[in-house]
Each structure stands twice: as C-alpha cells, then as structure tokens.
Amino acid sequence: VNSNATTIILFGATGDLARRKLYPALYSLYKKKNNFAVIGVARRDYDHEVFRQNVYESLKNHSNPENDAEDFIKRFYYYPLDVKDTKAYDGLKELADQLNDQFDLQGNRMFYLSLAPEFFAPVTLNLKQAGLTTNTGWKRLVIEKPFGRDLESAAELNNSIHEVFEESEIYRIDHYLGKEMVQNIQVIRFANPIFEGIWNNRYISNIQITSSETLGVGERASYYDHTGALMDMIQNHMLQMVALTAMEPPSRFVTEDIRDEKVKVLRSIRPLTDSTVANSVVRGQYTRGTMPNGDVVKGYREEENIKEQSMTDTFVAAKLHIDNFRWAGVPFYIRTGKRMTAKSTEIVVQFKDAPKRPYFNNFNDLQPNLLVIHVQPDEGLSLKLNAKKFSTGGGSIPITMNFSNSNNDDGSSAYERLIQDCIHGDSTNFTRWDEVALSWQFVDYIAEAWKERNIPLDRYEAGTMGPASAHELLAKDGHHWWPLT
Ligand code: NAP
C-alpha cells in the first residue's frame, strides 16, 4: 500500500500563500517520493497549462526547479470555480475521481483551504453536498488561519466543519508548529536531563518570548486593520510557544498525549481581570520612524487602507502567570509586533542568579544564565554562562555557547513538514479544538477589555522595540527584555 498517495484539492491555488509557500513545499515532497496530484481551485479563468506555468514560476522564484520539475507540474490540474457556486462542485468531483485512477492515489483526499476564512465553513459543507467527502480512502481537511475571530465564531466554524470531518481529520494549521526550532523545543527539554531537571520555578527566573517583524502592514492592510497583533499572533503562534515551553513531559510521546499537556498549560494560565489587562497587557501601534537600515517609514495610521483613527494593535506585550506547581511565581513575558528593530522569533529562558555573596562580591559582570532558542530567521540554540576573565586577577566574563543551523529557508519547509505530517496522518503539530478554544477565551477577554474599558493604545516609533510601557512591564518586576541576539 502506498500510504503517501493522495489527491490534494487546493482551494486558493492562485493566491499568495500557494505561490510563495505551498508549491515549493509540494515540490520538496514530490522529490521525497510522495505520490500526489493537485487540483488547483480558484475563480480565475486558467486552464491546466497556464496553471502549471504559474506553479513553475513559483518554483523559479521560491525554490530551485531541476529537470524533474517538468514531471512535477504535470501533476497539477486546474478547476475554475467560485466557491459559492454549489453546482460547480460536481465537476470537481469528476476530475478528482479521474485523477485518483490515473495516478493510483488510493482513494485518499486532502482538502487544503488556503482561502479567506469566511469561506472555510461553506466550502466544507459544499464538499459534502457534492459527495467529494465520501471517497474510498482517508479524507483530511487542512485549514489555514485564522480559525474564527473570537471564541463564538470559532465554535460556530468548528460545528460546521464537524458536520463533515471528524476532529482527527481536521488539520488546523499554525505554521509556527512546523518550524524546526519550535518542534525542537520538546527535544531540547525532554532529551536533555540537564535542562529538564531545572525547568521549573526553583531555577528559572522568567521566560521571554518575542516574535518581532520589521515589516509594516503592507498589502494586508485592510485585513490587518480588522485583526491586529492580538488576534493575528498572540491567539495562535505566541500561546502555542508558551504551551510548548511550559508543558509537562507527556506520558507517551504520541499526538493526543502531547496535545493534552499543551491544553493543561493553556488551562493553567491565570485568568485576567480588568485590572490585570490594564497592568500586564500592553497594546501598541507604530508611528512614523526610522528603521535600522535608515529608511524612514510611515506610521500605521498613515498607511494606505488604514482608518485615520484606527485603534488596531500592531504590537502586544503581556505578562502571563501559569498557575501550577512547576511555574508558580515565574512570569512569562510575551511580545510581538510590526515595524520593530529586527525580524526575530526567540525564546529566552532566564535562570535565577547565583548567590553573589560571599563568593562573587567583586564580580561586576556576573550575568544570569540564559538559554535562548532561536526560532527565526536563524535557527539555533545558545547558552550564556559566566567564566573567569582570562589572565587577569579576578572577575568574570560572560561566554556564549552557540549552535546555529544556518539555512536560507524562506518558510516553505515549515509547510513541507506540516503537509507531510498530514499525508502521514500525524496531527501532532496542528492545533486541536480545545487548544483553539482556550486561546480564544484568553484573547477575547483582552479584546473585550480594550474595547470597553478605555485602555490606552501606546504609540511606538517604527524601528524600536515597542512602546515604553512594554519595557516598564518588566521593569516593575526588576527584569528587562534581553536584547535580541
Ligand atoms: P490571497 O492571496 O488573497 O488568495 C486567495 C485565494 O482565494 C486566491 O487564489 C483567490 O483566487 C481565491 N478566491 C477568492 N475568492 C474566491 C471564490 N469566491 N471562489 C474561489 N476562490 C476564491 O490569500 P493568501 O494570502 O494566499 O491566504 C490564503 C489563506 O492563508 C488565508 O486564510 C490566510 O489567512 C492564510 N495565510 C496566508 C499567509 C500568507 O503568507 N499569505 C500566511 C498565513 C496564513 P481567485 O481570485 O482567482 O478566485
């Protein structure tokens, strides 16, 4: 049995995500001997040949097409369809059946919805109506973000797709979970007793998770102005990184056990109150400023397609508490934003200080130990230690042990890993419904408080690491954000 065989029905095949990430990812999967055919679906009036040339262009721009690319693109077919046109799905089914036989795809079907979120539910229901989901092999639904706009709409969406797919057939993409170093968090923790033994409130002072961008809103302006950093980043990627960093070792290293442990973390996040939203969540928006490369860039409200008085958050920082035995008393600081100083995602684990007295009274440079997991753009790990200053009488110097996996991945390899997992039926690195629901619950409370309680929007200059209040958030606790490395 060829378990790597499937028809992939890709909705949104002419879109940005497909072009930049999905086609390069599929090309790598093709090279790894997965057997698939792709039906690209979108409204525009392409035929198979034009579509194939578009896929080839995408490889030229974002990958490295070799001789086998000719054969690869022959596996691509195009089916023009407006997703709201229920009748048109019949022809899609015919084509899918035909390709299944032609390429020996074992009756398996992956439906990949790379579409605007308002189409997720209707497309799913239409697939069922047209009989596309009563195929003979497995069926799996891959669904892009955002999964809802709040808990209520997410639950509604979830109910709709559950009319067609079982939870185990639903693959909710959080592409951060496909990133090498995010997957590595568990290996670093659980395969290294020297870390897991001290991974708790006796030895850890605080944890800082940053995901910063240098870009502004760009072409996504009208989408972003209704979304903001809280919904776009905190609800999914940031809380997922918190969960992976804080979770207990699962009793078995299998999908549902791992997800259970992540859910427990999300459930243990101390519920917010109006005063904790005011004191421990920072809401920011960038103004005109100068980027490190010297470019002077517009403020958010001056960008095209943004409302003049927009209150959208382009930056969020927050302090979380995880109320369990392991983490009691250890703040988790998270921050994410646009137009910051550098593009970087990293997790900094700050360990508690060594006793200074009586041993190191005169050591001015004694720094806390830091373990830094670099997620992007560099992938790696560094550990900051103190050592004796060479050759002089006394004192210490900080030294850093570094591991870095230099690559020039533009993000398509995360999609490659995730699509491969889906073909294998492994949903570990996708979010289960209860994780999504708990994350929305947390984020909804903040969004509601911002709306109702007159909580200020703090402005920060483009090219900085966020508003002053984001620095005060840590200073109040006697900490500071570690500079990005
Ligand atoms: P996009 O560039 O706007 O593409 C949307 C696609 O949907 C196009 O192929 C469009 O093709 C098709 N489409 C629109 N209306 C349709 C209709 N009524 N019937 C059939 N097809 C229709 O969007 P995207 O950036 O690729 O994003 C796709 C999904 O991925 C979204 O859920 C987004 O949130 C998510 N996502 C994107 C990125 C990214 O980097 N782009 C990152 C993370 C998540 P036609 O115009 O030809 O119909």
UniProtKB/TrEMBL annotation:
Its EC number is 1.1.1.49. Catalyzes the oxidation of glucose 6-phosphate to 6-phosphogluconolactone. This is Glucose-6-phosphate 1-dehydrogenase. Keywords: Carbohydrate metabolism, Glucose metabolism, NADP, Oxidoreductase. The gene is zwf. The lineage of its organism: Bacteria, Bacillati, Bacillota, Bacilli, Bacillales. Residues 9-184 form the Glucose-6-phosphate dehydrogenase NAD-binding domain. InterPro entries: G6P_DH, G6P_DH_AS, G6P_DH_C, G6P_DH_NAD-bd, NAD(P)-bd_dom_sf. NADP(+) binds at G12, A13, T14, G15, D16, L17, A18, R19, R43, D82, V83, K145. Residues 187-482 form the Glucose-6-phosphate dehydrogenase C-terminal domain. NCBIfam families: zwf (TIGR00871). Signal peptide: none annotated. Pathway: Carbohydrate degradation; pentose phosphate pathway; D-ribulose 5-phosphate from D-glucose 6-phosphate (oxidative stage): step 1/3.
